[in-house]
């Protein structure tokens, strides 16, 4: 593809931004590409930080997305350790934190998200960690030999994966969650109960419906105090209580609702300004949604990059997907739903291999959770993408292929 676009500036060198920059070259962009990030590390892959990297099964080199040589070959001007302070949408310029002003023809925001912090007494003690960056992971790994007991605050996917990793490392793990069940706000109570029992069966002390109110210790954390009066001894605390999309780059014409609002092509409310990945709210099946995962970041970044070059626009219609590896479980979630009408189990939970479907009132599958069933990934993705009603009574029957569970009108 040929393009008249000269300079494209990408803010954020994470998964979305790095893959978008690469996609621009693949799609034929010959102009300048400036990739900016506040981090000082070469672009790297974040999902392994809580799993393979934490376990020592992968190195910093293994998780690097682009080397200096690759970036030079792709003619990508990488600026690390700087951020954008402001943009002028009329002049199409961006002011960087080091004082430089960069002119752009198209601007792509892939600013990702930041971790929510826990501002309680003792939060400044040594040994209290958050896991977002490679530097965070390095800091935790350096202390592993000194840690026997670890408290993990938050039983979301990062907290759950870290619980799994620390158990594999032989540590005593306490998992604290203020909700009644882990992940129930995404997966429902039945699956929340399943994952609670999964962690408990692996030896994790999983405490639900309790919150941390204080960290105790002289200079280093020694114990966690909870609202219900529990005292949990530990030599390290990992806090994982959610994220906030990075939308610090503001403009009175830039629409924001949790993240930068974009249309199906990745366009924001400002001309020639786009957004992709964790920082964006994008349309899926009639609703603006926000997804924080590797698969979405890659696909959205590539799609928006292509649309930035002009020509025929391509709607982003990829079915949302994320996965999580915990113990000997591969968990895969497809789709997006908050208000499902019914759920259907296909398979046996005791076998550690099953599929769990979330249906709306029209018997359309809006989302599905696969546990150790990667073979069902493709047909499930197709069913969600087609948005065709299914026969709920057929779904539990594993002798019937998934594609044969769709409702067929009589002639």
TrEMBL record:
Where in the numbering of this chain does the Reductase C-terminal domain appear?
321-405
The family database entries (Pfam families) matched by this protein are listed as:
Pyr_redox_2 (PF07992), Reductase_C (PF14759)
Q: Which residues form the FAD/NAD(P)-binding domain?
A: 7-301
Q: Which residues form the signal peptide?
A: none
What keywords sit in the KW lines?
FAD, Flavoprotein, Oxidoreductase
Q: Does the keyword Transcription regulation apply?
A: no
Task: Name any cofactors this protein relies on.
Answer: FAD
> What is the official name of this protein in its record?
NAD(P)/FAD-dependent oxidoreductase
What's the source species for this entry? Oceanobacillus locisalsi
